[in-house]
Amino acid sequence: MFVIDRVPKSTILNVDSEDPAFKILMLKMNKIYVFLADGFETVEALAPIDVMRRAGLKVTTVSIMGRHEVLSAQGVPVVADALMGDFSLSDADAIVLPGGSEGTENLSACASVREEIERMNNEGKLIAAICAAPMVLGRMGLLKGRNATCYPGCETDLAGACYTAAAVEKDGNIITACGPGVSFDFGFAIVAHFCGNEAVATLRSQMQFDR
To answer: What is the predicted pLDDT for the residue at 211?
Structure first.
């Protein structure tokens, strides 16, 4: 069983975690919620979570299944930080939707997920979806007139979008990505949105991406 570390760690900020100033900073950090449903693609959730936490973003995983343990498409059990409905997401700065065929259908069928997506979009806050998950946004009509990408074959559900087939696409407050192979790039795009390209360059160097 994979238990996600609940303590955000940063390879960019070199700080004393007991410093009161650091604790205040943590309270002001951008809050990212990653929605997990049975059948999610393992790497599409865990790679972006890893990258975002390295960047110092406050990431919380949220199970929509009514239980903390969520089973990925590859049979990896992951224990989420929280359950959908147990707390308010009103402080969210971004929500992230991993893909996976079954996972995407579970996300799309969840009224609470759709309500949060609608609210976030109305507030102009970041929504990020990868692989099949952009279909959730497309079915809601949120991609009309936007550039978007997804796993090949899923574009028929991107109603009204300009399908680009790019690895990662950002249009306004929505980031989409095409599949598991670009999971790290998807995470870097989210980090760039909040922390800037310099932070991404630092991360890529520290993680040995550019060797």
So the answer is: 82
